[in-house]
Write a structure and sequence with these properties.
The chain has 362 residues and is mostly helical. The longest helix is centred in the first third of the chain and has 44 residues.
Length: 362
């Protein structure tokens, strides 16, 4: 072998070509693509189950949050809102719009995590291929590096989903935002319908359905009314992106810290829950003014009530600052934080327990 490497450069070049060749085999590429799609599907199903489960438990928080966000509400605090709704409308009012929430959250979570996982793994595969190409180009300078090149090429044919290559921060954020935009384009009509059901006084009896409400909106206001609040919704696509990014960095930092202390292991369930809660608090506080703007744009006052008209996201934020002050932008944040923290942490926990080893973002 040494004689071949040092005595015959043409042989070395042909051997290098054989090393590089397996990385482009169609069968290997198809297998990698299939593995990435199956991984994305598994992650999406895990996210779907976690979101539906958390929505069932935390839904009353969502009802209280939206009631506190609309202008002219009579609730001074989260507990006051709970007490008033229960005394005036009954326990069933706490689950007003549950069907629209389950439909919306199911579609939203499945699409988001499928798109996010698929795009993330594709980006990782492209990055790994680019790094391998650069490495092999450097190896070609000396024939003595053939053994190392063989090892690198052998590892490159494994599914990209098993790679531990870290993507740059901006790439992970961009992937999360793109996945969110794709998802919200499909689920925004359900969000408008849900807001109308939750804030309508007729909704306490539970007589309003998803499809009947949607048809009424289209009939009275036109089809485009189903896409009210789409711009702040697109801005809010940074929420899950920030959430996944913060969770990813917390998890990576913690694993490295354990390794440095010579206790290498994966985080346990409680640690995952805490990291999921912290990441959700950060993403919720950063994006909450746009959550408020989205609800105000999608809301429609009940007949006979004064209805403030808004001309866009900036107009919503400006009018809130003028009439309600800075803290008006954060009305209803207590139930939002409680719901987001508990459901977000639960989602991360279920996603990591039943999803792929590196979910939701590695």
């Amino acid at each position: 072998y040494q004689r071949r490497v040092h005595g015959d450069s043409s042989t070395a070049e042909s051997t290098m070509a054989q090393v590089i060749k397996p990385t482009s085999l169609p069968k290997e590429q198809l297998a990698n693509d299939r593995d990435r799609m199956l991984k994305a599907l598994k992650e999406a199903l895990a996210g779907l189950g976690g979101q539906v489960y958390s929505s069932l438990i935390m839904f009353p928080m969502d009802v209280v949050k939206i009631r506190m966000q609309v202008p002219g509400n009579k609730y001074s605090s989260m507990m006051g809102a709970f007490s008033t709704i229960l005394s005036e409308e009954g326990f069933s009012a706490m689950y007003t719009g549950l069907s629209s929430e389950l439909l919306k959250s199911g579609i939203q979570t499945f699409l988001y995590y499928y798109c996010y996982s698929a795009m993330k793994d594709s980006a990782k595969a492209a990055q790994a291929k680019d790094e391998l190409t650069k490495k092999l180009q450097k190896m070609q300078a000396t024939a003595t590096a053939l053994a190392e090149a063989k090892q690198a090429a052998a590892s490159s044919v494994k599914p990209a989903s098993k790679s531990h290559t870290d993507l740059p921060v901006w790439v992970g954020l961009a992937i999360g935002i793109m996945a969110g935009i794709i998802t919200q384009t499909f689920v925004n009509p359900l969000s408008v319908i849900q807001t109308r059901i939750m804030t309508s006084k007729k909704s306490g009896g539970g007589s309003q359905g998803v499809f009947s409400t949607g048809l009424a909106i289209v009939k009275e206001e036109g089809f485009l009314a189903l896409y009210k609040g789409l711009i702040p919704t697109f801005i809010l696509c940074s929420n899950p992106a920030i959430n996944n990014l913060v969770f990813d960095r917390l998890k990576s930092f913690y694993v490295r810290w354990l390794y440095q202390r010579q206790h290498p292991r994966n985080p346990n369930m409680m640690e995952i829950f805490v990291m999921g809660a912290i990441s959700k608090v950060v993403s919720t506080i950063v994006t909450y003014p746009y959550i408020m703007a989205k609800v105000r744009l999608q809301w429609k006052g009940n007949p006979g009530e004064a209805h403030v008209k808004y001309n866009g996201t900036i107009d919503v934020i400006t009018k809130i600052l003028q009439h309600e002050g800075f803290f008006g932008l954060f009305a209803g944040i207590q139930p939002q934080l409680m719901k987001s923290v508990l459901s977000g942490a639960m989602l991360m926990l279920l996603l990591l327990l039943f999803g792929p080893p590196d979910a939701p973002c590695v």
